[in-house]
Amino acid sequence: MGSQCAVVWDESVLDYDLGGNHPLHPVRLELTMRLARSLGVLDGVEVLAPEPASDADLERVHRPEYLAAVRSAPLAGSEVGHGLGTDDNPIFDRMHEAAALIAGASIQAAEQIVSGRVDRAVNIAGGLHHAMADHAAGFCIYNDCAVAIAWMLAQGVERIAYLDVDVHHGDGVQAAFYDDPRVLTISLHQHPLTLWPGTGYATEVGADGADGTAVNIPLPPGTGDAGWRRAFHAVVPSVLESFRPQVLVTQCGADAHREDPLADLSMTVDGQRATYQDLRELAERCAGGKWLALGGGGYSLFRVVPRAWTHLLGTVLDRDIDPATTIPQEWMSHAVRVAHNVPLPTSMTDGADPAFEQWAGVTTAEVDTSIRKARHAVFPLHGLDPVDARD
Question: Facing residues of 120 across strands?
């Protein structure tokens, strides 16, 4: 059994570029890898270059007519439909090739785990969790998360848990496996009444025959580290322990941060770092150490995403970074040239304490209302007591 971590990356993934001032700008990936390298996180790590996903790989999740539309979109323009050519999902040259490469990178990371070569693998370019079977959505052309999960199922993996900490509901992955009892999807996100895509209520628990395999924890706007982590620990570990996945897949969107321009949660980089450490511990405890970590959203391109995902890389590699670490001058000198006068952080911390109080039952706090609803919706379906704080 492997014990090392695979990092899947090549600068060609930066070709997934929605253009202009689109929020999902590839500079966030380039700056992340540059920061990780400048801090020595990737020293001695063999970085694997991805190969594009095949049509057969993509068609485990996406319909053939949708693949055809994506291929033809750069020539067909606005007439192609399927959610392409919108402000969220503008058409760009070689769109199919770029999106298939992201999906292929997630499959390659999954293959490293399934083969036994490694226990953990990471693709920070992945996490495009909104794409549906027949249309693009939310900056996502192909759903690499679902494609990688479907690939693992086809290889004989019997139970996979998908845990989404992006500020937006992991709707595309939930939809792909809503009726499949082999896949548990868990999403913590800003409440759907207050943020796109407007799904992810606690009552969405899976279709008949897969009851309890969709878990949703919608959180009130303004929820910070303490409330977010309180909700996480009140729901997620118990459900994962009940499901006992063979692989844990995590979508690690960094847009729950308080500085993210597209949402309204209030986490810090310190809270996100603590969350990644929680994910690592849960993979060890509940999934035999098998952990596939993917990127996701995150639109504070210069101040948040590079730090958060460098912490993610450090956590996956067991090279945890001291939050007080100063950001190297070589990164600062490069970033200042592309950051367009955005003030840059100087250390790997926001100076926050991510400590939280464990949930111990009913209170009037908004986040505890969210916890109560999630536990009551799904815990009985796993044979767990929704009111017992020990579950």
Answer: 5, 291
What percentage of the chain carries pLDDT values higher than 90?
94
Q: Please enumerate in sequence order all residues whose Cβ is within 8 A of that of 249, keeping only pairs 6 or more positions apart, or say none.
A: 110, 145, 148, 149, 160, 161, 162, 163, 292, 294
369: CB partners within 8 A, 6+ apart: none
Does a cis peptide bond (omega within 30 degrees of 0) precede residue 197? yes
Strand partners, 137: 140
C-alpha span between 287 and 163 (Å, rounded): 12
Q: What is the pLDDT of residue 3?
A: 57
Mean pLDDT of 77-104: 94
- Measure the CA dihedral 140/22/96/147, to 10°: -20
Q: Which amino acid is at 21?
A: N
| Helix 95-114 vs helix 144-154: crossing angle, to nearest 10 | 40
| pTM (whole model) above 0.85 | yes
State the alpha helices, DSSP H only, in 244-326.
269-286, 305-316
Which pair of structure tokens corresponds to residue 83? 């959610």
Please tell me the predicted confidence (pLDDT) of residue 344. 97
Positions marked catalytic: 130
The pair phi, psi for residue 85, each rounded to 5°, is 85, 15
Q: State the virtual CA torsion across 99, 101, 104, 105 in degrees, nearest 10.
A: -110
CA distance 246 to 140: 27
pLDDT, tens only, 359-377? 988 777 899 999 999 999 9
CATH 3.40.718.10 assigned to 5-382: no
The Cα–Cα gap between 87 and 85 comes to 7
Q: What is the pLDDT of residues 240-252, one digit of tens each?
A: 999 999 999 999 9
Identify the burial level of 346 via C-beta atoms within 10 angstroms of its C-beta, where 0-12 means exposed, 13-18 middle and 19 or more buried: exposed
Q: In what order do the strands lie in the sheet with 47-48?
A: 47-48, 5-8, 120-123, 291-294, 247-251, 160-164, 183-190, 214-219
Please determine, for residue 2, whether its predicted confidence score (pLDDT) is greater than 50.
Answer: no
Q: What is the dihedral of CA 281, 285, 288, 293, to 10 degrees?
A: -30
Q: What are the residue boundaries of the structural domains of the chain, listed by start?
A: 5-382
pLDDT score at 1: 35
Give the chain's radius of gyration (CA, Å).
19
